[in-house]
Design a protein that fits this description.
The chain is mainly alpha-helical. 56% of the residues lie in helices and 5% in strands.
């Protein structure tokens, strides 16, 4: 079968090639034949990234099974996927690593281009609120290598935003519901903004509170900014917000640094009243080293500004 505990998948594909290819084809058939509700249930309840990894493209043209599955979900059946399912497919493609499949970038682009207006806003917000390093900024600016594909996606996002703006400007029926949604992006620093640095170098200079103490009222302030002036008085349960933190801490091997931050955010979410899981825009190793070795904060500040500019 596809997943042998004691045999690496590469060797398993060689030893049990016929059986593996048959099983892969059966899995693809399940996704092809599932009706809409079942299809979205499958996507939402299995480890899709692992499935993309386990199913391989074989040498024969008729057995490009990974490509067939990816195209099935992101092209052939995209119209039947919910926004939530589309986010899961994008996340699975990111975890698989886009360069591992020649069609992956086109498939990502197709998901975006077939998602419009409010659904596109929801897709972007959900992608940024997974509590994971695999966010929209990473997808657009790091994972996608083709400038053409990236520009096409950004142009589509810009075009859809203009349509949304026109609805708001002319007070259409759709705009009345749109005003109740939370699409204002709230960007914040971490040290000496969310939590006090205690004056510890190089995090910050504020000594009014102990190190890592959450500033009184700051979580409520973030929530009110996200709510805006036309939404409900209280944050609706199970609603995804738009909180983004800018961090100087560098992205290192895999997402080691980011996982530490997201564990802190999870604690704030579950026990301290943070209203949503935030996204995180990390720094890089080069700017961090220059700050530590040369006592020069300019590269650090420039990296934060570059992240901010890309995001907005």
């Amino acid at each position: 079968d596809l997943d042998q505990f004691y045999i690496p998948s590469t060797f398993n594909n060689l030893i049990n090639k016929a059986s593996v290819m048959k099983k892969e084809r059966e899995i693809i058939n399940i996704f092809e034949e599932a009706e809409k509700r079942a299809l979205n249930y499958l996507i939402g309840n299995l480890r899709l990234a692992l499935l993309f990894y386990k199913i391989k493209d074989h040498r024969s043209f008729n057995h490009q099974h990974r490509t067939q599955l990816i195209e099935l979900l992101s092209i052939e059946r995209i119209s039947q996927l919910t926004v939530y399912s589309r986010v899961i497919v994008l996340h699975a493609l990111q975890m698989m690593k886009l360069p591992s499949n020649t069609r992956a970038e086109f498939c990502v682009s197709n998901i975006f281009k077939n998602t419009t207006q409010d659904d596109l806003s929801d897709l972007k917000t959900l992608t940024d609120s997974k509590g994971s390093y695999f966010c929209m900024t990473k997808l657009i600016y790091d994972d996608i290598k083709s400038d053409i594909v990236r520009d096409d996606i950004l142009k589509h996002i810009e075009h859809q935003s203009k349509i949304q703006y026109n609805h708001m400007a002319f007070s259409t029926r759709l705009s009345k519901e749109r005003r109740k949604k939370f699409w204002r992006k709230v960007l914040s620093d971490v040290d000496d903004t969310l939590t006090c640095s205690g004056g510890a170098y190089p995090s910050g200079i504020d000594k009014r509170y102990g190190k890592k103490v959450v500033y009184p009222g700051v979580l409520g302030f973030y929530r009110e900014l996200d709510l805006g002036t036309e939404g409900p008085e209280e944050w609706p349960e199970h609603t995804v917000g738009n909180l983004v933190f800018l961090s100087a801490r560098p992205h290192i091997f895999k997402d080691v640094s980011e996982k530490i931050n997201f564990k802190k955010f999870e604690k704030l979410l579950t026990s301290r009243g943070m209203h949503t899981m935030p996204s995180l825009l990390a720094g890089d190793v080069n700017s961090g080293l220059e700050t530590l070795l040369k006592d020069d904060y300019e590269p650090l500040a420039q990296k934060k500004f570059d992240n901010f500019r890309k995001y907005v």
